[in-house]
Amino acid sequence: MRILVFGINYAPDLTGIGKYTGEMCSYLASKGHQVSMITAHPYYPQWKLADGYPKYFWKKEMIDGVEVIRCPLYIPEDPSAIKKIIHELAFLASIFPIWFRKLFSRKYDFVICLNPPFHLTAYPLMVKWFRGSKLISHVQDLQVDVVHDLELINNKSLINLMFAFERFYFKKSDYVSTISLGMERKIAAKGIPAYKQWLFPNWVDSDFIKPMTKEESLRESFGLKKSDQVVLYSGNMGEKQGLEFILDAALSFKNDTSIQFVIVGDGGAKKRLEEQAQDLGLDNVRFFPLQPYEDLSRLLAIADVHLVLQKKEASDLVMPSKLTGILAAGGLALITAVEGTSLYDVVAEHQMGVLIEPGSAEELVKGIKFCLESEDAERIKINARSYAEKSLAKEAVLGAFEDKLIKALNT
């Protein structure tokens, strides 16, 4: 098959959508399909242009058999809601000449659009109309719902216009895929019938990410003692997670020197969190940069408790990608989720984590104490690893997606 993919993030991103998109494209290329990717220069989650990429020009490269065409874009140092809009619009402008060339060069069997940004779908939709390609909108994050529910934009007319465009794009797509049952329900509520929806969950390489001992972990290089009880948050530091509650919890444990909070990663909220931790005099909170992917198992092994946090308003809009790695590593995850959401249901059903109500520092403190004292911790860890191996295996998830593409091509 010939496949053209649009997305603002791609490998070598270590977290979020770019990581999954890169692995998806590499997998399809390894199966003999011709895959082209139109994306931006790497910048995420640091919100800084990666070394070796031009600031104002385009660049073409081959990654694992995938043709990757990278476009310049505005990268704000402090990504506020308005700056993110400008950031995404700049990307839409810069991909125009690449899209135009692709539109009239050859026909693709499929054009896949990664959402967000939701309005990126305009380009793939025109490829579908002009060249007869089948369009798949893959939704990693219901961006407009998040913006609305978190009140990141308060202009009602603008929000309604964004919802209208989103519904239009979904309805004009041949298929709309997404990563969780909860998001499928949200998409169905927008008028998209079940026969047009594909469940395409995020996956994990459970052969690569696996349980390790504390002795094998990064504890020593992080300056942590073997006797420390470590509460770890690792991943993107954005506005959906409610990370300020980590500092509230750390304040409650300030006099217990055996409990250390470790925050690893990057993102728009990192600088603010570091400043707040300093102002509060939190010596029990340590910040570290994003670690290389090859060290992920060793990083996850430092933790006695893993934090998977999100604000209540976003609790059924995103499936935290960091959770897949924690499960594969056999970690004890403390997860904020609202009862009745897909995340809550799957964790409760398989007993593979500890669930608490989001948006409460008090509940977070109680949850951390429960995890550190729980006699069920080892059983939960075993359940987590088992679920990752059985339900999130990389080869199985990507193989099922390829099968759906082949079947759709022949119908």
3D architecture notes:
InterPro entries: Glyco_trans_1, Glyco_trans_4-like_N, Glycosyltransferase_grp1. The chain has two domains: 2-203 and 393-409, Rossmann fold (3-Layer(aba) Sandwich); 229-391, 3-Layer(aba) Sandwich (Rossmann fold), CATH 3.40.50. The chain has helices spanning 16-30, 81-94, 96-103, 122-131, 143-149, 156-172, 181-188, 244-252, 270-279, 296-300, 322-328, 342-350, 361-373, 377-391, 394-409, and strands at residues 2-6, 34-40, 59-63, 66-71, 110-115, 134-139, 175-178, 197-199, 229-236, 259-266, 285-288, 305-308, 333-336, 354-356. It has an eight-stranded mixed beta sheet, sandwiched between helices. Strands 11-10-9-12-13-14 form a six-stranded parallel beta sheet, sandwiched between helices. With 411 residues, the chain is an alpha/beta fold. It contains 15 helices and 14 strands. Helix 5 (143-149) runs antiparallel to helix 6 (156-172), helix 8 crosses helix 13 (361-373) and helix 11 packs across helix 14.
Largest sheet strand order: 3-4-2-1-5-6-7-8
Radius of gyration over all CA atoms, rounded:
21 Å
Distance from N terminus to C terminus (CA atoms, Å) equals 14 Å
Strand content: 15-25%
In the residues, how many domains can be counted?
A: 2
Overall geometry:
globular
Tell me, what is the CATH class of the largest domain? Answer: Alpha Beta
Organism: Algoriphagus pacificus
Pfam families: Glyco_trans_4_4, Glycos_transf_1
Domain Glycosyltransferase subfamily 4-like N-terminal: 15-203
Domain Glycosyl transferase family: 216-385
